[in-house]
Write a structure and sequence with these properties.
By secondary structure, the protein is an all-alpha fold. The chain has a single domain, classed as ABC transporter involved in vitamin B12 uptake, BtuC, CATH 1.10.3470. Helices cover 78% and strands 0% of the residues. The chain contains 13 helices and no strands. Helix 2 crosses helix 12. The longest helix is centred in the C-terminal third of the chain and has 34 residues.
Length: 352
């Protein structure tokens, strides 16, 4: 393997690792300033999240929606589109799978589970395809439309679980439990880890093949790199934009479906604690790499999984965990800025 190819392969993996390491170092300083022991805090965080049986299961459970949604943000970025609507797409995907789980209760699991997953994907794809259509046909900025659709989706689900979908005599807004045949199997007994993590890794593999080894992947990259040149190559820019936004929404919809089918078994008013927004940071941290998305999703899931344990064991406020996430994004942004500056300078010297 040549040095250029080796660097192209390693950079997407090393870059988030370096950013994460720097964020943890600065986070250690913040922990010390808060009056806690950084070593004790990080030991509790990573031991609980990665080395204990239940903690690992909890980490994999939280990684599932993060990975699905960040893959959706990533595929949109490949085509030059910014999908800020992952949160709303999660809610719509959760709604779609819930409807199948509630109103088709007599199906066998081999049919019921795929059908509920397809409904989650379809509902999310429609919610992602709307801003894709508006961008491609009407020229409306997708950042605005995806962001606004988040609020519509969240409030739509809130209304449904408070009124038509609310479980009888429920003390708080949530739907009845979906049929047993629509629930994802647990892959680690006596833990929360369900088959959704396997499905998300399969989705990552399929997406890698599409983006890196198929004509469609070339088409998406061409549109993202230079839409004008893509048109000269007879690539339909409008169709590509609609397609990638629909796929992005569908992947986020699978995140919502996995939360309902594998973890909560019913639709809640607050089905997502902000996975859609974390996914934006994860996708940018990955530098367009599927392996980077998997790695960074695992890191963010680890932080979420071990945050409460770190607070109990070392007295570290939960806000420090969110600060570490923000610092990770900050460091990757700095590295991207430096890399861009070096590349521009190198091109200038070459032209001179």
């Amino acid at each position: 393997m040549s040095k250029t190819k080796r660097a192209k392969f390693l950079l997407p993996i090393l870059s988030p690792l370096i950013a994460i390491t720097c964020a943890l170092i600065v986070g250690a300083i913040l922990i010390a300033l808060a009056g806690a022991n950084p070593i004790t805090a990080y030991t509790a965080l990573f031991q609980e999240s990665l080395t204990t049986y239940f903690g690992l299961g909890n980490t994999l459970t939280k990684m599932t929606p993060l990975l699905f949604t960040s893959l959706g943000v990533l595929v949109a970025l490949k085509a030059g589109q910014f999908n800020i609507g992952g949160e709303g797409q999660i809610y719509l995907g959760a709604l779609g799978s819930t409807l199948i789980g509630l109103y088709t209760p007599q199906l066998p699991a081999l049919i019921h589970i795929p059908l509920a997953l397809c409904a989650g994907f379809l509902f999310g794809a429609v919610w992602g395809g709307i801003p894709g259509y508006l961008k491609a046909v009407k020229g409306i900025n997708e950042v605005i439309t995806t962001l606004l659709l988040n609020y519509i989706a969240v409030n739509l689900v809130s209304y449904l679980v408070q009124h038509p979908l609310k479980a009888p005599a429920a003390p708080s807004p949530y739907s009845p439990i979906i049929a047993k045949s629509a629930q994802l199997p647990i892959i680690l007994p006596q833990s929360l880890a369900h088959a959704g993590i396997v499905l998300s890794l399969i989705a990552a593999g399929i997406l890698w093949v599409i983006l890196e080894r198929s004509p469609l992947g070339y088409q998406i990259a061409a549109v993202g790199f230079n839409p004008i040149a893509a048109r000269y190559a007879r690539i339909s820019v409008e169709s590509t934009i609609i397609l990638v936004m629909a796929v992005a929404g569908g992947l986020a919809g699978l995140a919502g479906a996995s939360e309902v089918m594998g973890l909560k078994y019913r639709l809640f008013e607050q089905i997502s604690p902000g996975y859609g927004f974390d996914a934006i940071a994860i996708a940018f941290l990955s530098r367009g790499s599927i392996s980077g998305v998997i790695l960074t999703s695992l890191f963010f899931a680890t932080l979420r999984s071990g945050a409460n344990v770190m607070q109990r064991s070392a007295g570290v406020p939960l806000t420090v965990v969110y600060a570490i996430q923000g610092l990770t994004v900050l460091f990757i942004a700095i590295s991207l800025a430096i890399e861009t500056k070096i590349r521009i300078k190198t091109q200038s010297n070459t032209e001179a």
